[in-house]
Structure formats: structure tokens, C-alpha cells
Amino acid sequence: MSLRLILRSIFLGSLLWTFSSSALADEQKIRDLIKQKFPNVELEQVNKVKGIELYEIVFDGDLVYVDSNLKYFIDGNLIDLSTMQNITRARKDFLEAKLMEKVAIPLEEFPLDWALTKTHGDGSRKVAYFADPNCGYCKKFERGVLPKMENVTVYIFPYPIISEKSLPLARSIWCSSNREAAWDNYVLNGISPKNKGECDTPIENILAFGKKMRIRGTPTLFFPDGTRVPGMMGVSELNQKLDDTQ
After folding, report:
1. 210 near 235, Cβ under 8 Å?
2. Which of 93, 124, 132, 212 could form a disulfide with 218, with the two C-beta atoms 3.0–4.6 Å apart?
3. Residue 101 · residue 225 · CB < 8 Å
4. pTM, rounded to two decimals
5. φ and ψ at 131, to 5 degrees?
6. Taking the domains of the chain in order of start, what are their residue ranges?
7. What is the per-residue pLDDT for 6?
8. Non-local CB neighbours of 182 within 8 Å, separated by 6+ positions
């Protein structure tokens, strides 16, 4: 169970923590108490909110607040009414940017043997592409954008996160005698593979890698310099990005 759900069940369920009533002015003490109560939670950061007696708790890329006594839990946006700044949104954007910098790796370090590979022209420009076979924007991208790309190698990582049907489908595509053709048959034409997906596949490894890389949706594209673009790109936009990052 996530820390967010645990905290909701405790605080919103009107259950009380049995901590000392004395104020906790030290971030490390709050960290220690949370770890004591929830030893399995991977706590990333505890930071004092400037100007008020609240502490932000960062875990699993998310952010909540507690007071200095750990008596109150706040799950939502913190707004500075004097400036109307959404403090929570600004902090989440900052933390997300830092996290993306931390996990960024060059394309050559990706597990490319887990990918389906398509080459257009001389294949000199390269891009990795995480796609769910049932993703509507992925289908649109592959029908309207990829065929217009020249001199590009596309590494397609099947990333089945949209529905329960996507995982067995991705396995069946991988277990086909011609994986790239099986992918195209389904994504472009809606024709499912005939096999049951019972061979060894890297799909679970791809899902774990995607989680580590904080890939939360499809399509997501990665370029040789380690930069990423979440969402569908147009023809001219993708061409420019490919030229700029090789």
C-alpha cells in the first residue's frame, strides 16, 4: 500500500498517531518517525515549507504535507493567497525536472535488445519509442508520422500500461516469428497475433525499466542525447528533434 493511501486511512479515518505532542522542529526527526511508523515506504525527501509550520513529504514522485507535530496530514494544493501562487504545483514541477535529469541516460545505454527495430533509409538518425499497442495516439503516430521519416532507426519498446488486454497482446507480438510485422499488423491493421505469447519475453523487464525511467504514458520518445518527449510529435517537429540530437 502506498504512503498516500496509508496516510489517508489513518488521518481521514480519524485514527490517531501516538507521537509526542512537543513540536518537531527538525526535518530528520520527522523523517525518522515516518520511517518508524512506515518502514517499507521509500521516503525521498522531507523539507520545511518556507514561512509556515508545514513540512513537505516527497515519496514515489508525489508530495503531501504534515504539520510539525505529525498530527495533521494535507493532501492537495497549497496556495499562497498573497501571490496566488500554487506552491505545490511549482514544487512538483521542480522535483519532476530534477528527477528527469537524474534518470536521463543516453540512448546507447538503453536495453536496445528488448526493442523491436525499424529502419527507414540509412537509419542514421535514432529514436527510442515506448508504445502501448492499444494506445490511440501511438497508432496515429505510426500511421501519420513515422512513414514520413527518412534515414531513421526506430527502437520500439512495447510498453503495455493502458489496459489489461495490452500485456498479453505485447507478449504475443514478441513471440511472433516476425515481431515487427506482428506489431504493424496489430497497430496499423487491428490484426492480433495467433500465438498465445508463451515464449520468453522482455516485457516485464521493459515495464520495470519504464517505471525506473518514470515513463507514465505513451507514446514517449527518447533521443540519443538522453532527452525525452512525452506525447505524440508531428512530422516537422520530430524531424527537427532528430537533427538536433544526433
Report:
1. no
2. 132
3. no
4. 0.72
5. -145, 135
6. 3-103, 107-245
7. 53
8. 172, 173, 176, 193
